[in-house]
Specification:
The complex is a heterodimer. Helices cover 77% and strands 0% of the residues of chain A. Chain A has eleven helices and no strands. By secondary structure, chain B is an alpha/beta fold. Chain B folds into two domains: 151 residues, P-loop containing nucleotide triphosphate hydrolases (Rossmann fold, 3-Layer(aba) Sandwich), CATH 3.40.50; 65 residues, no CATH class. The chains are: A mainly alpha, B alpha/beta.
């Protein structure tokens, strides 16, 4: 058995040599996570703003439900969507299973509650005078909402970063819905799971290093946003 | 002369509590009105209604002789004629220029004309040259003056002030006072809510006095009907 030092050396050489399998997994992870984060943002931010600014009798229930959804295990989300898009499911005919589209759908569902939650917090923390000020200066309701979004933009950026962070590091959805197909739906996390189970520790470590680097960059970005 | 505002049978509730109850109130154009009353008497509520930010549960309001129907598009047009300066005004994050220009940009002003209007408004409040300052760098008095400049730049038909001198330094208070007194000569209707009897005296004009969330009866010559 190779020493850990040798494994590390091999891992770094895989990275530095631009190993195809390594970087295909990296590219798949980043592209899928980016797409799902964009979709989650487009859905989650307006919902977060609407829920945050509205008063309705079931608001507390809605927020509790939302918080619960952020804690649902990724493999459960993967399982539920699997049920919908498998051959036996209502959308089986669309042949989405074991494609990157399926992973994007699953990761979007994963990220939306997080984006909504962070956006809700941002709106809750916003000054109550923002919208009335915008309105009295001649803004329409929509323009007032736009101004509010500008005022809480750092909170919304934090929402986007948190959503991305969640999906880039998840394995359950990608495994269930993507099938870990080499060169196609294999992400960093599913590749780590597979290669490690095969005893290919160096490959797993290489991807782990890159994933840690991505996580570091994300956290650094989040810190910057929070400081702002 | 068509009144600027005519309020009839106006009632505003906050929850179950009556925040304001007016049988009748007329406000004429181009005059100063001083709105007085104890804390909780309904002054801010009345200003909010006059600014079309808050809809009363009952009653009718006419603005320039036209009944207000409280529809979104109509309200936006009305709000572009009436500006309320809150007691603690909020400045949007960014620069002084961005704030003063906000309402002007909504109205389609741009480029040199925009810069000119901003500069003029800042000069009026004695903050010429403050355009590039970040609002977080302003003192309390300067921030209030920027909020005033932001309102003045729009040249509204009605300018409403909620406690404009509260916690202001002397220079800022002088600037605000001076501007308020000159506005009617430009045709602007001004309503100032104030606790300060000295300010009320300095401003002159008609008095609207609220007590227990209702209009207090005043001698003839004041603005009530």
């Amino acid at each position: 058995m190779n020493s850990f030092g040798e494994i590390l050396r091999t891992a770094f050489s895989l990275i530095l040599s631009g190993d195809r399998d390594v970087f295909e997994a990296v590219w798949t992870s980043i592209s899928v996570a980016s797409c799902s984060t964009i979709f989650a943002t487009l859905m989650g931010v307006p919902i977060g703003l609407l829920v945050g600014l509205s008063q309705f009798s079931l608001k507390r229930v809605a927020i509790t439900l939302l918080n619960t959804l952020t804690a649902v295990p990724t493999v459960v989300i993967g399982l539920v969507i699997y049920g919908f898009i498998s051959r036996q499911g209502p959308f089986g005919g669309m042949e989405l299973l074991f494609t990157t589209k399926a992973i994007i759908i699953g990761e979007t569902v994963l990220a939306v509650p997080i984006v909504i939650g962070y956006t809700l917090s941002a709106v809750k923390g916003a000054d109550v005078r923002v919208i009335p000020t915008a309105l009295t200066l001649g803004a329409s309701r929509v323009q007032g909402l736009v101004q509010l979004t500008r005022e809480v933009r750092f909170g919304i950026m934090a929402a986007v970063i948190a959503g991305f962070s969640r999906v880039i590091s998840e394995v359950g959805v990608a495994m269930m819905l993507g099938g870990n197909v080499r060169g196609f739906t294999r992400t960093m996390t599913t590749a780590i799971a597979l290669e490690t189970s095969k005893g290919e520790f160096a490959f797993g470590i290489a991807l782990g290093i890159i994933l840690m680097a991505v996580a570091l960059v994300i956290n650094f970005a989040l810190n910057l946003v929070q400081k702002s | 002369m068509t009144p600027r505002y005519r309020l009839t049978g106006v009632t505003k509730y906050y929850g179950d509590k009556i925040a304001l109850e007016l049988e009748s109130l007329t406000i004429l154009p181009g005059r100063i009105y001083v709105l007085t009353g104890d804390n909780g008497s309904g002054k801010s509520t009345l200003l909010s209604i006059l600014a079309f930010l808050s809809r009363p549960e009952r009653g009718e309001i006419e603005f320039d002789g036209k009944l207000v129907e409280w529809k979104n598009a109509e309200l936006q047009l009305l709000r572009r004629q009436v500006t309320l300066l809150h007691q603690s005004p909020y400045l949007f994050t960014g620069t002084v220029f961005g704030n003063v220009a906000y309402g002007l940009k909504l109205r389609g002003q741009k480029d040199e004309a925009l810069k000119q209007r901003v500069a003029e408004a800042l000069a009026l409040v004695r903050l010429a040259g403050f355009e590039t300052r970040n609002v977080r760098q302003l003192s309390g008095g300067e921030a209030r003056r920027v909020a005033l400049a932001r309102a003045l730049a729009l040249q509204p038909v009605v300018l409403l002030f909620d406690e404009p001198l509260a916690n202001l330094d002397q220079i800022s208070a002088e600037v605000v006072d001076e501007i308020i007194t000159t506005l009617p000569s430009q045709g602007t209707t001004v309503v100032v809510a104030t606790h300060d009897p000295q300010q009320a005296g300095r401003l002159g004009g008609d008095t609207i006095r609220l007590a227990d969330n209702k209009l207090d009866r005043l001698p003839t010559g004041h603005c009530m009907e």
